[in-house]
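Chain A, query sequence.
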Amino acid sequence: MTDVTSAKSARRPHHWRRDLMELAALFTAVAVADAIANLIGHQPDGPYLLMASALVLTATAGFHTWWARRHSHAPPPDTDGSSGTDGTGGTGGSAVQPVVPALSTTPGADAGAEDESEAGAGETTLWRMRTTVRDAPGSLAALCTVLARHGIDILTLQTHPLAQGTVDEFLLRAPVTLPAAQLTRAISAAGGSSTWIERADAHDLVDAPTRVLGLATRTALDAAELPLALRQLLGRCTIHSSPAVSVTGRATGETAPVEGVLEETMMRLRDPSGGVITVERPYLPFTPTEFARARALVELDARLGPRVPRSEHVLTLPEGNEITVRRADHADLDAARAMHERCSEQTLRLRYHGPVRDADRYLDHLLSPRFGRTLAVQTASGRLVALGHLLWDGDETEVALLVEDDWQRRGIGSELLGRLVALAVEAGCESVYAVTQASNTGMVAAMRALSLPLDYQIEEGTLVITARLDASPLGSLPSHESHGQSRR
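Chain A, predicted structure.
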């Protein structure tokens, strides 16, 4: 039964026949009282009997009123028979029925409900907070009491045990009028130390096990997802992949133990493909729990080995030729070197900004999924004619294009760039930048065709164009799944 139905049932009007009967009963009572008064009043003790009768009636009415008020607060009887008893005095039936609280219709209850509704309608904001407390009974309870006193709802809670104390990580829904500084002071007064707080969003509402499983799935499907998965797992951090061998073929000396290294705000993990993955978070030390989760992701990547999704997208150029856009990896190394041989020195110089003879040395690094994602364009005959790179550069992301001379000015570069930017948006990048020269009009035109806010910087003849991706929603950007036909 709904609230409206209950309220209507409580206010059902009386029938006119009942009113007529009550009025007749009233007149009858008056007539009887008058007859008794006349009969007793003529007796010698009549006045005393009348006074005694009035006192008895008054006492009876008072007792009846007290009795009615007392039983009006008793719980309502069980109407569904779930708590009734059978003939033997035991509980009837074996099923336990749920107890449903009655809906209160008193004015006080209605006022309280309105107050709660107004409080719930107030604006709130999400916060992620981490603080260190003593590993002692009552420490967490003290924090929760302070949060409740400020009208803060605890949505999720994770604990990270340490050698000294425990790190508690909260996802909080707090009134929008509560400043972070005031909350931090209150937590410090309750025993929290090294408190860190930042704004959260709806993505943080996913519980930790679900988020870790999702990141593990992404890593299992694509080796290029490992750096992105680590960043989403650990929050705002800087990730650098250092190869064991440089582009010139020399050993870099970068190595790490199999079990990894944890040093306060930095962790070093052995890259399954060689080299070291360094994760830094200067503003917040890593906990052993976070270190263990990161190691588990890296171990999963190592066990699965090199892998790249094999989806293909067939496009038709304006002149009618069909090309295929797909992900590239080390298996395309020979085809990429053959494309270099067909490119002019000017094209290679605009792409690599250095001696043309060193171009082939970069390919092993560029085609590694650990340092980013590469898209390849091949013709119907299987010849590789263009490469597009999305490279992770710490907190920033670089895009780079190389199109064979005979296939330039056909829209291939713009198509590749649009797909790379869409990949960057999906990866959560805030911006991408391209390093080129002012004379490279093709790259400049492709960046301008993105219809995104651009920043230009020129240093010693080198042009750096940065596109801000947070200025436009994903739906307004070119999608790498939105053109042509797909083959998997």
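The CA atoms of residues 246 and 252 lie 6 Å apart. The chain has three domains: 123-204, 208-304, 312-487.
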